[in-house]
Amino acid sequence: MIRLATKRDASNIANLIEQRAVALNEQGSDQWTEYLEQDLLKRVETDIASGDVYVYEQADAILASIALLPPDEWDHALWEDGERGQYIHRIVVSEQLKGQGVGQRLMQHVLEEADGDEPIRLDCVADNAFLNDYYPRFGFVYVGSRNGYNTFEYKLEASVSA
Fold this sequence. Notes:
Order of helices and strands: EHHEEHEHEHEE
CATH architecture: 3-Layer(aba) Sandwich
Radius of gyration: 15 Å
InterPro entries: Acyl_CoA_acyltransferase, GNAT_dom, YpeA/RimI_acetyltransf
CATH class: Alpha Beta
Helix content: 25-40%
CATH superfamily: Gcn5-related N-acetyltransferase (GNAT)
Protein name: GNAT family N-acetyltransferase
Pfam families: Acetyltransf_1
Strand content: 25-35%
Domain N-acetyltransferase: 11-159
Shape: globular
Distance between the termini: 19 Å
Organism: Exiguobacterium alkaliphilum
Number of strands: 7
C-alpha cells in the first residue's frame, strides 16, 4: 500500500536511505555519500514537514519511499530557475523488493499527486546509466547536466508508463 508518510515513519525511511547509501558506497559509488555524513533522521523529518513523502508499506513494514518537495539549496545549485517547481528526491526501495515494480508504482503515484501547475523535476548522477534510461520512461525529459548531475523535467503530455 502507498500512503503519505507520518512523523512515525521517519526513522524507518532514514534506515532505508542509509542502507542504500551504504550499499552504493560498497559498490564504489559516491552517490548518496552525503547521507552518511549528516543527521539523516532530521533530513527525513524535514522532508515530511515541508513536502509530501510517500511510503510503500507491506505487512506493517516501510519498504520504500519517495519524496516530492519544494525546492531546496540542492535544487537551486542544479537549476537556473531552481525556485520553480516540485522536486522528486530520495527514491529508495528495499533490496527485498527490487525488481517487483515498487519504484515504478511510487513514481506513478507521485506524478498523479503532484501539482499539475508546477514543473516536476528530478536529477541523478550523470554517469548513472540506469536512472538516465529509467526516468524518460515516465515522461521525464533530459534538460541538461550541471555539477556532475543530469536534470530532468516531467512533461505532462507524456504518458506515465514504465
